[in-house]
Structures are given as C-alpha cells and as structure tokens.
Amino acid sequence: MSRAFVVALCAAITATLAACGGTTVEPRARPVAVDGQSFAALPEATTFAKIDSLPQDHETAPTAGQVLRPEDDVVVYEAPGGRAVARLPATQLGSPTWVPEITREDGWSQVLLPSRPNRSTGWVHTGGDDFERAENDYLVTVDLAAFRMEVVERGRSIGQWTVGTGSAEHPTPTGRTYIMASIKETVTTFSPYVLPLGAHSDTHETFGGGPGTVALHGWPDDTPFGTATSDGCVRVPDDALDLLLTLPLGTVVIVK
C-alpha cells in the first residue's frame, strides 16, 4: 500500500467522522503577539485602573480553588486568542499578585482582576512558564443581610463572626472577589492590618486618597459589628482578622 494512498485514506476517514458528527480536535487558540511598545501602552490591571473592555464575572459560586501568580507582568486578553486589553503586573500594593482562576481552557485561564468595574475578569495564556499555580483551600463568605462572615477550609467551617458592613448609602459590593494584598497600617489606628479586596465602592470614586478599594479590616471596638455603617468595607473582630491574615493571597471572597 502506497504512502499517498494511506494519507488519502486517513483524510477521507477524518472527513467522514466530521460529517457524521464525530469529535474533531480544535486547534489550540494561540495568544496574539504583542510587541514591547504595545505591551507598555496597555492599561495595568490594578486597583487603581478602570478598564471597561474587560469581560465580567456573573457567578457567585465558589471556584475550584486554583490561584495563579505571574512571574512577571503578563498580557491579559479579552478571550482565548482574542485581543490584548490589559497587562497584569507581578505585584499589587506591594504584595505578589495572586489571582483566582474561574475558568480553564486548553492553555488558557480566566481570572478575577482587581480593576474597575467590579467583577472584572480577563484571560491569560498559561501554556508557558509565566505562572506559578497553587491550590487554595480557603473560602471567605460575607452575608450582608445577616452581618455574618465565615471562613471555610476544604468545605469545613473554621470560623464565623458577626461583622460590620457598608451602609445603605455606601453598600458593600456583592459578587465574587478575592484578597488582593495585605497592608500593615501605618497611617491610621483603626486596624493594625488592612486586606484590600479586588472590588471597589460603587459610590466612592476615591476614599482616603485611594481609589475606593473595599477591604476587610479590624476596628478598635465592637460598636460596628452587626450594623451597616461603613463606607463599604467589612469590619471584623480581632480574632477574625488574625485568621484572615493567615489566608493566602488570592483567597476567594463571596459577598452576597
């Protein structure tokens, strides 16, 4: 049997399978090449940015627990093989960037991002060596109506607290977000540490000189717990803050 005949036969079989509804392997979407000048011109996906072209996350379920850390600044795409829309820096607010993965395709990951508008996401190409991947076993949920925060490890509750939330005028934004950074407070005294989230106030464009980033943080006394009186942040008791500080960056926070 000649080689030409075998090649023709294989092609015919492939065509027949496709015509009969057989499974065909789609080629992997390749990232669009971005030169150095174009890369530098992309908006940084940080808490200080607003990038309207980013896709949105509309889910409220826990993720699979995968988190990614870029080794260096990387391109963010609107879809696998789609247009470059941003760049994700390797650090955020002095902390290494860890972002939760919400969807995975062949060589691509859709991740939550910290920029406005809230629930922004983007696609990063993970087919190379640009990312470190880790399993995050923790989940934080905040029930605004009940003023309750819970931390879960591998499906098991390891702590529940009554917390303070945003007021009716400045509500805490809902949806999936994540612990973006850990900052030791040196300016104010209301909390020894602040844990900024990848979410922003919908009513404050800026707050305290910053971009209106919502955070988890402590409070000097228990007066705000069980009340909706903050400017959007979630105020937590001391022992809750102690536990939150042990959670890895990139831990998903679901506010409902």
Would you mind describing this structure in some detail?
By secondary structure, the protein is mainly beta. The protein is built from three helices and 20 strands. The chain has a five-stranded antiparallel beta sheet with strand order 8-7-6-1-9, with no helix packed on it. A five-stranded mixed beta sheet has the order 12-11-10-20-14, covered by helices on one side. Strand 11 (148-153) and strand 12 (156-162) form a beta hairpin. It is globular, with a radius of gyration of 22 Å. Mean pLDDT is 90; it is low at 1-25.
Short description:
The protein is mainly beta and 256 residues long. The chain is 12% helix and 35% strand.
Features:
mainly beta, 12% helix, 256 residues, 5-stranded mixed β-sheet, globular
